[in-house]
Amino acid sequence: MTETPNFDIDFDAVERAARILEEGGLVAIPTETVYGLAADADNADAVLATYKAKGRPADHPLIVHVADADAIDFWAEGVPEAARTLARLYWPGPLTIVLKKKPRCGLWVTGGQDTVALRCPSHPVAHALLERFSGPTKKGLTAPSANTFGRISPSTAGHVAQDLGVKPEGKLDMILEGGPCEFGIESTMVNLSSGRPEVLRHGVITRAMLEETLGVPVPDAGKDAPRASGRLKSHYAPKTKLELAQPDAYVETVLRWTAENAGPVALMAPAATLARIREALAPERIALAIEASPDVLHYGAELYDHLHALDDARATRIFVEAPPATPEWAAVNDRLGRAAA
Questions:
Q1: Is 283 buried (19+), middle (13-18) or exposed (0-12) by CB count in 10 A?
Q2: What does this protein do, in the record's words (predicted)?
Q3: Are 185 and 310 in contact (CB under 8 A)?
């Protein structure tokens, strides 16, 4: 889909990561979306260890990350032409495609379902690792976000180190450094396992882009769709309670809460909104104020980093002004809505 910004690849580190994964270990890897907790998708013990490290429910399916589109037929069967069309246009990139699985794909990957989610990441470090790891059988890596289940996803190696950490104090065998993630929010997920395409999770690749590519409507998935990562009501949540307020009510909401409660607040809103609050509140009542970008790609790329900073500010409440309710902001609004649930 896109050319991820250049990053000097440490091939010695990539080789070390590949060997750890081949031995059944766990490695946090950078992708263009978020950092993932990688394990050999063919190794049941390794994959189950990721569930334990994250505290993730065992019926919550994982995405298999592959080196290229040729891997699709090694992991999925009955592949529709729509899947190949999307892979040609958007792989490598932030798109996950859900298909009927082949027997090779274990139920430890799929959460007991008969479908498999596949993605080919574009981050140069992740891509180098997958090319080294893949081999003639097109081996893949499961790689859910490298964070405690339900909490804020990691968009830097530092977020991973702070949360899961490296052994012996932590839970991982290695963190493979790759700089900050380009897009900062999880991939778009489209279900092609049931006849018609449907969006399981919104991301940088929008519904409009999918519909233009496929030439058919691509609605949101219904209740009978496969279970998928990131669809729980409460997800991506900071430890500090986050409240999402509409632009016309944001200032009033913050001022009313601070009048009725003690302690500082952490804020994320446009500059003009923050200026109004600073005029009304004493400086000590504002633990941290982050200016929200008006650009959807910048906002998404910075979202989890900002949520980590807001959560670390030792505020008693986080207030985020809701972004525009337009289609291009669907992924950002989805993540914020679940973070506030």
A1: exposed
A2: Required for the formation of a threonylcarbamoyl group on adenosine at position 37 (t(6)A37) in tRNAs that read codons beginning with adenine.
A3: no
Indicate the SS3 state at residue 211: helix
User: Could you tell me which of 300, 301, 296 has the C-alpha nearest to residue 327?
Assistant: 296
Q: What share of the chain is helix, strand, coil (3-state, %, to 5)?
A: 35, 20, 45
Same fold, 11-214 and 242-340: no
Give Cα separations from 97 to 147, 158, 283, 337 (angstroms).
Answer: 23, 29, 48, 24
Fold of 11-214: DHBP synthase (3.90.870)
Q: Does domain 242-340 have CATH number 3.40.50.11030?
A: yes
- How far is CA 329 from each of CA 32, 249, 324, rounded to the nearest angstrom? 18, 19, 7
Q: What is the pTM of this model?
A: 0.93
According to the annotation, is 153 in a ligand binding site?
yes
CA 326 – CA 324 distance, rounded (Å)? 6
Per-domain residue ranges of the chain: 11-214, 242-340
| Dihedral angle computed from the Cα positions of residues 98, 104, 109 and 110, in that order, rounded to the nearest 10 degrees | 50
Q: Tell whether 65 is in a known binding site.
A: yes
Q: Flag whether 187 is marked binding.
A: yes
Q: Is 143 part of any known ligand binding site?
A: yes
Q: What is the pLDDT along the chain (341 residues), one digit of tens a residue?
A: 544 556 789 999 999 999 999 999 999 999 999 999 999 999 999 999 999 999 998 889 999 999 999 999 999 999 999 999 999 999 999 999 999 999 999 999 999 999 999 999 999 999 999 999 999 999 999 999 999 998 999 999 999 999 999 999 999 999 999 999 999 999 999 999 988 999 999 999 999 999 999 999 999 998 888 888 766 666 788 999 999 999 999 999 999 999 999 999 999 999 999 999 999 999 999 999 999 999 999 999 999 999 999 999 999 999 999 999 999 999 999 999 999 98
Structure tokens given for 94: 């932030």
